[in-house]
Specification:
By secondary structure, the chain is of the alpha+beta class. It folds into two domains: 242 residues, 4-Layer Sandwich (Glutamine Phosphoribosylpyrophosphate, subunit 1, domain 1); 197 residues, Rossmann fold (3-Layer(aba) Sandwich). Helix content is 26%, strand content 23%. The chain is built from 17 helices and 23 strands. It has a seven-stranded antiparallel sheet with strand order 3-2-4-1-10-9-11. A six-stranded antiparallel sheet has the order 5-6-7-8-12-13. The protein has a four-stranded parallel sheet with strand order 17-20-21-22, with helices on both faces.
Length: 499
């Protein structure tokens, strides 16, 4: 993996007889891989919503005292990687807004492409915005937008917002789980077990792995365009745009990169365990691009299942030859220049006795900018590898993602810089020469889709430039909400932490 940043994680629980803040802490702790910039929890006691949030990892943002300040019957949580808006304390989530329709807390995974235009068209520029994120535009629609009730405002939001949004929304007395009409980002529902003294309840999460850690049973995915409501009356749902019938997997445009890289391998998406999906990607990669090699290795950790699949299909033994330091990148202490130049060596360490004199087949899940892969190959050669054959379990990334993945501008994408003269086919040989491999091949888009067992039901815009929604700008700017339209200055910021 080279230069691709995580999305965000959202979690929610409605369980009046449980410690909802503590459950949410462990829920977002399980979703830490989806964002490490900030973490937050909002809880409602039926009358008031309180928020605690902070920069850094979940374990850095919370302690017993902060969890104890969040009593409630329901809570939502968030781990953030910034896709719109800077890494600022004011942009931590959940967001708390209080408008003409009441108080709402919102946690958002995804990106609303037309947030700036939506903010202007709603007249929301007159509101006092506390963040520079697209997420607050959605929150303000719920608190101040048109409509007789919340259901109307959900319908208005789905009609107007262009992009991806999986939401956990908290009111004083209810939890809502919302997924955009295309279903670009994942969201699932689970049931907490009851105990002898009562307890139990409902949970929603970006990924099922968070439910597993809490002993919750996965019930189903939230459907595209669905609003799920959980309160004292139980669980119910509705489709504001009437999309509750006649839908198929092909209508849903769940991000293909969730299957390739983002979600944890122990999560289940659309009924498929991701470890098995990624293993099948490796099998298909071996079928499409065989090679003569002595060993198969994976770039840890996300490429490991695909490497295992490649080894199984090819008959070449799989071995572990790269040891990952999983704590690099999880500190605020910056390395000095000498260490910065060796950032790959800080993260990965080769096992020389395994690599020396071997023809090595290396499986990785993607090449984005093409800056990290040459260093990995150089490191393997320095460890004694005789030949290095790269196999990538994602197709070439030729376009940026407008839906919540900070994967670079098109000018930074190495595949976009290396097209054949026909302008349609990526010049893989040129990338091979750039990274320094003896051979380089990518899985086909058809092969990656085949591995998910979902047919055409994906967003694959980063591989094709064909996005599932219209009006996607040619150049995306994650900081477009940073400045005031009239003054060009940063909006006023209030402290986010409330209790």
């Amino acid at each position: 993996m080279d230069g691709l940043s995580e999305k965000c994680g959202v979690f929610g629980v409605y369980a009046p007889e449980e410690d909802v803040a503590r459950l949410t802490f462990f829920g977002i702790y399980s979703l830490q891989h989806r964002g490490q910039e900030s973490a937050g929890i909002a809880a409602s006691d039926g009358r008031q919503i309180r928020i605690e949030a902070g920069m850094g990892l979940v374990s850095q943002a919370f302690d017993e005292q902060r969890l104890g300040a969040l009593p409630g019957i329901a809570a939502i949580g968030h781990t953030r990687y910034s896709t719109t808006g800077s890494t600022l304390a004011c942009n931590t989530q959940p967001l708390l807004v209080n408008g003409v329709h009441g108080e709402y807390a919102l946690a958002h995974n995804g990106n609303v492409v037309n947030a700036k235009e939506l903010k202007s068209s709603l007249g929301l520029e007159d509101h006092f915005f506390e963040t520079t994120t697209d997420s607050e535009v959605l929150a303000r629609i719920l608190s101040d937008g048109p409509g007789r009730d919340l259901n109307d405002r959900f319908a208005y939001m789905m009609t107007k917002a262009n992009g991806a949004y999986s939401l956990a929304v908290l009111t004083n007395d209810a939890l809502y789980a919302v997924r955009d009409p295309l279903g670009i980002r994942p969201l699932c529902i689970g049931k907490l077990p009851s105990r002898d003294n009562g307890g139990g309840g409902w949970v929603v999460s970006s990924e099922s792995c968070a439910l597993d850690h809490l002993g919750a049973t996965v019930i189903r995915d939230v459907s595209p365009g669905e609003v799920v409501k959980i309160d004292a009356g139980g669980i119910s749902s509705f489709f504001p745009l009437g999309q509750n019938s006649g839908r198929t997997d092909k209508d849903e445009k769940l991000c293909l990169f969730e299957f390739i890289y983002f979600a944890r391998p122990d999560s289940v998406l659309s009924g498929s365990l991701l470890h098995e999906v990624r293993r099948r990607m490796g099998v298909r990669l071996a079928q499409e691009h065989p090679a003569e090699a002595d060993i198969v290795i994976g770039v840890p950790d996300s490429a490991t299942p695909a490497a295992i699949g490649y080894a199984e299909e090819s008959g070449i033994p799989y071995v572990e030859a790269l040891v990952k330091n999983r704590y690099v990148g999880r500190t605020f202490i910056k390395p000095d220049q000498r260490l910065r130049e060796r950032d790959v060596e800080l993260k990965l360490n080769p096992l020389k006795h395994v690599l020396e004199g071997k023809r090595v087949l290396v499986v990785d899940d993607s090449i984005v900018r093409g800056t990290t892969t040459p260093r990995v190959i150089r490191m393997l050669r320095e460890a004694g590898a005789k030949e290095i054959h790269m196999r990538i379990s994602a197709p070439p990334i030729t376009h940026p993602c407008p839906y919540g993945t900070d994967m670079a501008t098109r000018g930074e994408l190495i595949a976009a810089q290396n097209f054949q003269p026909d302008g349609r086919t990526v010049d893989v040989d040129a990338i091979e020469n750039h990274v320094g491999a003896d051979s380089l091949r990518y899985i086909s888009l058809e092969g990656a889709s085949w591995a998910t067992r979902r047919g055409a039901g994906h967003c694959a815009g980063c591989f094709t430039g064909k996005y599932p929604s219209e009006g996607i700008p040619l150049q995306l700017d994650k900081f477009e909400l940073e400045t005031d339209d009239e003054t060009g200055s940063m909006p006023s910021i209030l402290p986010l932490i409330r209790s």
